[in-house]
């Protein structure tokens, strides 16, 4: 189950956030893998904030939630912080993240989250992805039924003629 949290107007992560999720009993009632993503308005560690004040009570509540919910915070690639106040006296924090269940991590051990550049918002977008895996050579399959499609034949002829015009080796074939 995937749950996205929109930015709340709460100044810190507290029991109201957990209650709005239905409480932790809600999580236990669904024996499925979990992925929480969004703006939690809190950090898990003081190093995830630069400038401004680190609200220790919020930090403790957020850490308690992560432990009780049994979710994993993936390392962030890209930008270290996901939010900025964009003011002269700058403040940055990692408020946005994906928290996933260990089961998902066992299925996708290379899973990463990445912070993308910030454009219009005061938050950077974050994505979660599995890095590409090189499975080796991928064979090309040709189906004889393709030769019966007149539009495909016409398109192939046009492409070959374009290759000849571009100065590539002449490719001849007979259909």
TrEMBL record:
Stored InterPro entries: Endo/exonu/phosph_ase_sf
SUPFAM superfamilies given in the database record: DNase I-like
Top-rank taxon, per record: Eukaryota
Family matches, as PANTHER family: BNAC02G09200D PROTEIN, ENDONUCLEASE_EXONUCLEASE_PHOSPHATASE DOMAIN-CONTAINING PROTEIN
Protein name in the entry: Endonuclease/exonuclease/phosphatase domain-containing protein
């Amino acid at each position: 189950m995937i749950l996205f949290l929109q930015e709340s107007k709460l100044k810190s992560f507290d029991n109201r956030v957990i209650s709005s999720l239905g409480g932790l009993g809600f999580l236990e009632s669904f024996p499925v893998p979990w992925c929480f993503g969004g703006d939690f308005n809190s950090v898990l560690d003081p190093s995830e904030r630069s400038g401004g004040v680190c609200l220790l009570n919020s930090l403790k509540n957020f850490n308690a939630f992560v432990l009780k919910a049994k979710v994993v915070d993936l390392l962030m690639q890209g930008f270290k912080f996901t939010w900025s106040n964009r003011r002269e006296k700058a403040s940055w924090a990692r408020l946005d993240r994906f928290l996933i269940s260990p089961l998902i991590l066992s299925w996708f051990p290379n899973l990463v989250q990445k912070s993308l550049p910030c454009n219009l918002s005061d938050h950077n977008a974050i994505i979660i992805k599995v890095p590409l895996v090189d499975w080796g050579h991928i064979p090309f399959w040709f189906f004889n039924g393709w030769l019966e499609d007149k539009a495909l034949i016409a398109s192939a002829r046009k492409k070959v003629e374009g290759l000849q015009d571009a100065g590539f080796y002449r490719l001849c074939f007979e259909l």
